[in-house]
Amino acid sequence: MSTPAGATARSAAPVADATRTGSRALFAVCAATLLVLMNYTAPVAVLPQTARSLGAGLTTQTWLINAITLGLAATLLVAGSLGDDFGRRRIFRAGLALLAASTLGAAVAPNAGTFVAARVLQGVASAAILAAGLGLLGHAFHTNHGRSHATARWASMLGAGIALGPLTAAVLTALGSWRWSHLMLAAVAAVLAALTGRLLAESRAERPARIDVPGVLTLGAGLSLLLVAITAGRIGWLRPAVLIPLVLGTLLLAAFVVIEARGRAPMLDLALFRRPDFRIATIGAFFTGLAAIGPSTVLPVLVQRLVGISALGGAGLAFLWAGASFVVSNQMRHHGTRFAPTRQLALGFALTAAGYLAMLGYADAHSWARTIPGLLISGAGSGLLNAALARLAVTSVPLDRVAMGSGANNTARYVGSAFGVAASITVASSLLPAGQTAGFSAHGADVVLLLGAGVAVLGGAATLIRRRVTAPAPAAV
């Protein structure tokens, strides 16, 4: 029996509509993610110029880089939970508006303290964009193929942003001032905030919206204190300024776990950890931040200081690493469903370790060119990690918890990144030759690479351990 033409047209209309909705969501979320990562990495390439302009010493310079991670890690899970309950588009647009305002604040900052405060707010804004954005994609794409395609595109924006952020900042600094890149990024964020109202459809969980106030307070304060301790530990771990926030932060995080386990509407559903994929996604994200993002964020600064290249040259090296990450992540949209995410993570960690080992000795040889093969190899590893983690973040949780899954995944990633950045700077600035009292050393730079490779190997091993749990997992929606 033939189908009437009118019925065919009516059945095709929702499909076309869904395709348009998904394409708009993918464009808006990818553009905002690109902006977030450009903003995240822009100061790295021009750290000496920024520090000199703001009068920042070596310890404060760590905060110029790490302050945004503090805001990110402390609020990613909160933003994801709020997005699921109150509307992912609403949280996403609020994040873009706050990013525009805080980036403008960084551009006009008169001193280091104001700049650091603006960077913390940038982290809060970025958390809203990343958690709600990946949640929007999880809601817009329902099939395995569609989600693999969308999350691989999203992951490629991480690499593209890391590539373009330092390069843009270096070029604009060479033309005028380090402040110009912040002004440009603030303007783009404002435009995106205005456009996304039309590009995105609202989505939220079908349950009463509640704010887990005790969870928000204990998690935010606990992670903030922990990251303060990690960053302050650069000049000694046994000082009260490190031990007090470290102990208080640990106690608050323990309290958060107890609150979430007993709460009626928890910000983080601890039952999700019964799912092997969710556990692996969280562990893999933490080790990605610790082993891949942390050392790679500090590397351009070390090459500038130890080899003597310009800010633009350092940005060019970062572009090679992030460019390789972008290409590999983008290609995984064609192949993502053919590979198990755990194997993809293990291979990504292996390439990260191999890339770091290939760069050993560049500072002693006083050769930036010796870093190129290793940057390309470790960048490819980062691309595999990003694509696998983005896919797991939305497939390892029920549909009504996709922003929570994204928030948990990215929280683990940026807590690991904060550890990695602080540890890399501490090691590189502590192992100084006799007679040198400040700065970085070639020996310290090699130890950073060796530690990064070792942690990457541990991360790869951890993601391959899929312990079966007999307790029932939460039902998918």
TrEMBL record:
Residues 25-471 form the Major facilitator superfamily (MFS) profile domain. Pfam families: MFS_1. Its main location: membrane. PROSITE patterns: MFS. This is Major Facilitator Superfamily protein. GO terms for molecular function: transmembrane transporter activity. It is found in: Cell membrane. SUPFAM superfamilies: MFS general substrate transporter. It comes from Micromonospora rhizosphaerae. The keyword Signal does not apply. The chain crosses the membrane at residues 25-43, 63-82, 94-118, 124-142, 154-176, 182-201, 213-235, 241-259, 280-303, 309-329, 345-363, 375-394, 414-435, 447-465. The keyword Transmembrane applies. Keywords: Membrane, Transmembrane, Transmembrane helix. GO terms for cellular component: plasma membrane. It is a multi-pass membrane protein.
